[in-house]
Specification:
seven-stranded mixed beta sheet; single chain; globular; Rossmann fold; 35% helix; 2 domains; 300 residues; alpha/beta; five-stranded mixed beta sheet
């Protein structure tokens, strides 16, 4: 998704309030943006705490800065600066984390982001965007440019099957219909999972939804989504994030507040490192029961 993200920002680079900071990362993807932004493309070096504080200062002066790094280096390493300099002042700094979930594979836990949006959504004024497909990025960037609040954009890999047709972008999208359970998928996992779910007969095929903007709020739950839950009696949430602070917890809370209680609730999520080994992203997904095969088996 990095390339599509860069292309979307190139179109915004002529804005007088645009500025982009990178923590010495983005090679072979951000060069067109560097050329378009000129001296408003700043390599802040491997100094993420300082980069976030500089971004906050730029935002305080009326600019709209973007700060980019590998996901845990943009939310975990500078967490104090994100909290105190950006969120407490409700500044429009856009944090961009590349490689959400287990995307960095064998590079290990220091490079994995499996608790990122749970941590960030506990901070004041924060919004989170988790694109499921590369095509989500242009409308997301357009929205983020206008957003006058802090935000975190979690980039991953586009896993969309080539022949899967997508409706126009929206935070909540229903991509499959059937008579099985209701499935809510967060982010890029949607691509590989939808490729498997759509092969099921209609009697077992889930009503499958994709969610790409957080936090989950009671007032923003689509009526069609609630209708599907009531009809199926079974909600399954799938996310490459730990359970604590994740969408599974948030959606359960919102449903309770609305008085909607499915008879069955399933939560497929990241579970850390069960074998104590590191491997590819698919290795970790499989170990946590997040592979399409494991989810199909559990859903029956």
């Amino acid at each position: 998704m990095r390339t599509t993200f860069s292309e979307a920002l190139v179109k915004q680079a002529t804005r007088s309030d645009f500025v982009f900071l990178t923590g010495d990362l983005g090679f072979n993807a951000l060069e067109p943006l560097q050329k378009a932004a000129g001296d408003r493309f700043i390599n802040a070096g491997i100094a993420e705490q300082n980069m976030v504080s500089v971004a906050a200062g730029l935002a305080h002066q009326g600019l709209k800065p973007w700060a980019y790094s590998i996901a845990p280096f943009i939310y975990a390493r500078p967490l104090e600066q994100v909290r105190n300099d950006v969120c407490l002042h409700d500044l429009p700094v856009k944090l961009v984390g590349n490689g959400g979930g287990y995307a960095y594979g064998v590079m290990g836990g220091s490079h994995h982001a499996i608790e990122d949006y749970g941590i960030l959504l506990s901070l004041l004024n924060m919004r989170v965007f988790v694109p499921a497909f590369a095509s989500d990025l242009p409308p997301m960037v357009d929205q983020l440019i206008q957003l006058e609040h802090p935000a975190y954009l979690r980039l991953g890999k586009d896993e969309k099957p080539k022949d899967l047709d997508l409706p126009p972008y929206a935070p909540w999208r229903k991509l499959l219909s059937g008579k099985g359970p209701t499935v809510l998928i967060v982010g890029p996992l949607a691509g590989s999972l939808l490729g498997a779910l759509r092969s099921l007969p209609e009697s077992k095929r889930p009503n499958s939804w994709v969610l790409t903007e957080l936090p989950v709020e009671e007032k923003t739950l689509p009526e069609a989504f609630l209708k599907d839950i009531k009809a199926s009696g079974h909600l399954a949430v799938v996310e490459e994030h730990v359970a604590h602070g994740g969408v599974g917890e948030a959606i359960a809370r919102c449903l309770m507040l609305k008085g909607v209680t499915p008879g069955c609730f399933s939560h497929f999520c990241a579970q850390g490192y069960l074998s104590k080994f590191y491997g590819s992203q698919n290795f970790h997904r499989k170990e946590c029961g997040l592979s399409p095969e494991d989810i199909l088996k559990e859903l029956g």
